[in-house]
Amino acid sequence: MFSGIIESLAIVRNIEHEGTNIHFTFESTFTSELKVDQSVAHNGVCLTVTHIQGDQYRVTAIEETLRLTNLGLLNIGNKVNVERCIRMNDRLDGHIVQGHADGTAEVTQIIDKNGSWEFDFKLSDSFSLIHDHSPEKLIIQKGSITINGTSLTVTHVQDQTFGVAIIPYTFQHTNFHALKIGDMVNIELDVLGKYVARLTRH
Question: Is pLDDT of 132 > 60?
Fold first, then answer.
């Protein structure tokens, strides 16, 4: 379980393909505090630490994870947003995030608002459908959404597109500052909304 409050940026140091899996090696400022079997969210995707050496650690993404996320697009040197799982006695500063990406979205517009940034996104064609509901129906104005692991508030939504506002701190301390139009990001919809949709479907 995560909160969507990014702790740090991790750098991709090695990428190894094995069958349909990809092993990623990351360098992080908190590697010395990790242990094998620990869960860490990478761009909002929960992955298990399998090996630690020095300031680097290794995780594995399987085919299903790669199909629904942007992890397969990573290159050596890229930076990803990382967050360790929350402690039960911590404040929940963001919202409930599972680390289970529902799919990806494309950056369609970035507007510098002279003090903040507005990012617009369009859900990708490969975005997973949530039961009988279209995914865009689970995105609501002023509702919570997770983008590359970052807990954010939806500012506007229309059909397959939606937008969020990014404050300077978030822009500087996450990989939002590196996003460009056309880039793909991982999306996790609000888990409470998904359960409500499941319970109310006909």
Answer: no
